[in-house]
Design goal:
Blueprint: E1 3-7, H1 12-23, E2 27-32, E3 44-48, E4 67-70, H2 85-111, E5 117-121, H3 124-127, H4 134-154, E6 159-165, H5 174-177, H6 180-189, H7 198-209, E7 220-223
Parallel strand pairs: 1-2, 1-4, 2-3, 4-5, 5-6, 6-7
The chain binds NADP nicotinamide-adenine-dinucleotide phosphate.
Residues 7-14, 32-35, 49-52, 71-73, 94, 121, 123, 165, 167-168, 170-173 line the site of NADP nicotinamide-adenine-dinucleotide phosphate.
Length: 232
């Protein structure tokens, strides 16, 4: 049994990953921001956390942490000319500075583990240019750089990997999936002819946080129904 911390486990991919890890018998310490969902509280500690706060309180965590998954993110799609510099900064604060602050506070706990692993999230839209994705791509590009830098700096003690999904059916993506036409058009864009489910991505997160992936670090893993890799 390992000790894992999931930042943002009240929704989408984080929620699905927490459920899988709890089912597998691990101790999962989870956080929520706006929505407190009913995870099984007998096996999961669930705590409020806003990563935008200056001081982050992690008193609820044990002294040894085997893995950290950072889920908070955004998908603000707009023409580049309409995105204000302050929008880029707000996005960067949530996606990048938030991850940096959390990792820095939790490093001592991760260093005490023999199997520590960090999982971050990027997006397909970093390696594959897509219109109207400038805001999210700028932040997630930084996450990919951070992944590689930290993987190098903390090898062999802590592994750091990043998952880059395409469109996945979570509350975050609802504005892109809120009609049948949008769902179908988005499914057809992918070579595997469907959009992602939270479980698709959680399966990879569960693998990367576990010892089963112990010879993988510094990787950006694309999970996107083939969209970044093949033409059919
Ligand atoms: N869904 C997609 O299509 C897609 C595609 C590419 C990449 N991604 C990336 O995958 C990751 C997970 O996405 P998702 O779709 O699962 O998102 P989601 O359903 O919106 O879940 C995000 C989680 O982060 C928490 N959160 C949000 N703001 C926070 C804050 N200020 N402080 C602390 N926690 C906060 C949310 O808490 P509350 O719900 O309690 O507010 C929620 O638990 C994100 O980094 C996203 O950018 C998603």
């Amino acid at each position: 049994m390992s000790n894992y911390c999931i930042i943002g486990a009240s929704s989408g991919i984080g929620l699905s990953t927490a459920q899988k890890l709890i089912q597998a018998g691990h101790q999962v310490f989870s956080t929520y921001f706006n929505n407190k969902k009913d995870l099984d509280l007998s096996t999961s500690n669930f705590h409020y956390l806003n990563v935008l706060d200056e001081n982050l309180n992690f008193d609820f965590l044990p002294e040894i942490l085997d893995g950290l998954i950072y889920c908070p993110g955004s998908i603000n799609l707009r023409p580049f000319e309409r995105i204000k510099p302050s929008d880029f900064i707000a996005d960067y604060e949530l996606q990048v500075v938030g991850a940096i602050k959390v990792i820095q506070v939790l490093l001592p706990r991760l260093k005490r583990s023999e199997i520590a692993s960090i999982v971050l999230f990027s997006t397909l839209a970093v390696q594959t240019g897509l219109p109207y994705h400038a805001q999210v791509s700028a932040s997630k590009g930084a996450i990919e750089g951070l992944t590689k830098a930290l993987a190098a700096e903390y090898a062999p003690k802590i592994r750091v990997n990043c998952i880059a999904p395409s469109l996945t059916d979570t509350p975050l993506a609802q504005s892109l999936l809120n009609t049948e036409q949008k769902r179908e058009a988005n499914a057809l864009r992918h070579p595997l002819k469907r959009i992602g489910t939270p479980e698709d991505i959680a399966n990879l997160a569960e693998f990367l946080i576990s010892e089963k992936s112990c010879w993988i670090t510094g990787q950006i893993l694309h999970i996107d129904g083939g969209l970044s890799a093949i033409k059919v």
